[in-house]
């Protein structure tokens, strides 16, 4: 079996039927990861117990005990997820030595399904960023062109997956952090409906927007792994009680009669020519396969970036208040602790523990939530958010799935936007509205630009309609010209 091409079910079937052992699969990926990772810096730490855990799966199989649908499938996990006994730093000095005593629900469910956690993956600090340049662990490089960013904040997940250092990865998406790096690295990334996947054990950034999802090599793998991690969790009151459909079994590339909405707001002159061409070609393909293309409009998308950055920063300033060197996290060193005024203690600790971008968000968010500004900013942003949901509901009356670009461009150069926060934030123009509205969204690799960089297509569906989104994703994947092509670091 070619482990570089094998799907999750190929691996699980081979392991379950003893054609290959889980230990052999894991050691293959570990060796590969150890040799290629120095070129892209996607992995922050390895799980020293991975092979022993894989052996346990093999023992279960030998004893004819049941193993799950991901038996022996090696996974990498973004640093935002708590993993029992494995460092979980959120790529921040603040949590540089944090080793959680428990697994996030999503990780626990992967493990219960037989997956093996091989290591943790790089990201932007506290998932704030679009380029993976804000990290305690250093910049991640795009495997297609190591002078380019992999996207962010789940840049380590997308880069590790693109060069196949892991069979699968998990990421989180608050404003595009699964879809945008998936687009930049030529892999499949799915952000499910808000409430599908438990946030328990995931370090909180902006709780009303955060969702976890897979960044993997195919739509089929995305459907299966999403099925495994989804569903109600008593530890997260925002998870939905809705049953989780067997998306992977019901995948169907037939789009005949389906209405695909082309989002008017995304077709402005701001798109780079290659991205525009990819969108046009994807529409042609869907049309030829029998889908009907209709234009839809969500006018408030124009305000998605400011609304998102107000809400995300406000929630972040509240969520990150706990990292004060007393309750949690890094503490600055003081010669005579008892003589230090409390304000100085907090100021030094938080000043040293957080990076520049995180501090910028905390200050922005604290300002938005302060009395006198709360109504003008936070309340107003919430009102626009509500109206945006209504506009999406209107749009979904005339279409089943919405198609748009993921961002205006392909992966940009390392260093190009890092000193211009506004240019960086504008990168999230097409992804943030999906989170604000709580909708499921995905990026599916579709083509390569003239410079050989991947271009993904974004699909968005109505709440809890992941199936139709995945089906259209499958149709695009089957027609994709990147399929089977490998990045330079492979
Ligand atoms: N780039 C966005 C931000 O910096 C989105 C990040 C995310 O989805 N976690 O907030």
Describe the structure.
The chain is an alpha/beta fold. It has a domain at 8-256: Amidase signature (AS) domain (Amidase signature (AS) enzymes). Helices cover 37% and strands 13% of the residues. It is built from 15 helices and eleven strands. It has helices spanning 8-16, 22-40, 50-62, 105-112, 155-162, 179-185, 219-229, 273-288, 304-319, 342-353, 356-369, 374-395, 421-426, 432-436, 466-479, and strands at residues 43-46, 74-78, 116-121, 168-173, 188-191, 211-216, 259-263, 292-296, 401-405, 441-448, 454-461. Strands 1-3-2-4-6-5-10-11-9-7-8 form an eleven-stranded mixed beta sheet, sandwiched between helices. Strand 10 (441-448) and strand 11 form a beta hairpin. The longest helix has 22 residues, at 374-395. The radius of gyration is 22 Å and the shape is globular. Residues 127-130, 153, 173-177, 205, 312, 428 line the site of glutamine.
Write the CATH architecture name of the domain at 8-256. Alpha-Beta Complex
* Cα separation of the termini: 18 Å
What is the 3D shape? globular
Poorly predicted segments = none
CATH topology of the domain at 8-256: Amidase signature (AS) enzymes
Number of helices: 15
Spatial order of the strands in the main sheet? 1-3-2-4-6-5-10-11-9-7-8
Written as H for each helix and E for each strand, in order along the chain, the element string is HHEHEHEHEHEEHEHEHHHHEHHEEH
| Biggest sheet character | 11 strands, mixed
Number of strands: 11
Bound molecules: glutamine
Mean pLDDT score: 97
Topology readout:
Layout: H1 8-16, H2 22-40, E1 43-46, H3 50-62, E2 74-78, H4 105-112, E3 116-121, H5 155-162, E4 168-173, H6 179-185, E5 188-191, E6 211-216, H7 219-229, E7 259-263, H8 273-288, E8 292-296, H9 304-319, H10 342-353, H11 356-369, H12 374-395, E9 401-405, H13 421-426, H14 432-436, E10 441-448, E11 454-461, H15 466-479
Parallel strand pairs: 2-3, 2-4, 7-8, 7-9
Antiparallel strand pairs: 1-3, 4-6, 5-6, 5-10, 9-11, 10-11
Residues 127-130, 153, 173-177, 205, 312, 428 line the site of glutamine.
Family: Belongs to the amidase family. GatA subfamily.
Keywords: ATP-binding, Ligase, Nucleotide-binding, Protein biosynthesis, Transferase
Subunit structure: Heterotrimer of A, B and C subunits.
